[in-house]
Amino acid sequence: ICDSESLYIVDANGNKKKINAEASFCPALSPNGKMVAFNQMDDIVVMNIDGSGKRVLTGGFNPSWVNNSQIVFERTTDDGHVYTSGDLYIMNINSGAPKALTATSSMIEMNPCVSPDGSKITFISFTDGQVYSADLK
Asked: Is this model's pTM higher than 0.70 or not?
């Protein structure tokens, strides 16, 4: 869980342990439950679930795991009042640079969510408010 100031892991008994002491939001647990990806301000961070191995990957928001080594996320820009652009990216957390999944000027793609089997991605378009789904592989 996060409280905008820190990121915690909570066990089955409700015991809470702080694993990141900086502003954290949008946490996503890896499919195998061993890592967490989250936002720390404008950056995407990954770490082991015990808080070790913390790495800042890249700029972006709303990470969603494809598998245990890849994430999908959004990069958006705004003018201080409204979003002006947004696209989705995929990245191997161990070895890769972000690769664009979308590159549209007519749509602002946001809030990616990958299906449990990693084959589909669902996202919203800020431009028209619609929910879209596409094959990921």
From this structure: yes
**Closest by alpha carbon to 34, among 77, 76, 79, 68?**
68
pLDDT tens column, 8-22: 988 899 999 999 988
Bridge partners (DSSP) listed for residue 114:
121
Q: Please tell me the distance from the alpha carbon of residue 99 to that of residue 109, in angstroms, as a whole number.
A: 15
For residue 131, give the amino acid letter: V
For 45, half-sphere exposure in the C-beta direction (CA atoms, 13 angstrom radius) is: 24
What length does the chain have? Answer: 137
Gap between the Cα atoms of 39 and 37, Å rounded: 7
Give the span between the Cα atoms of 118 and 53, in whole angstroms.
24
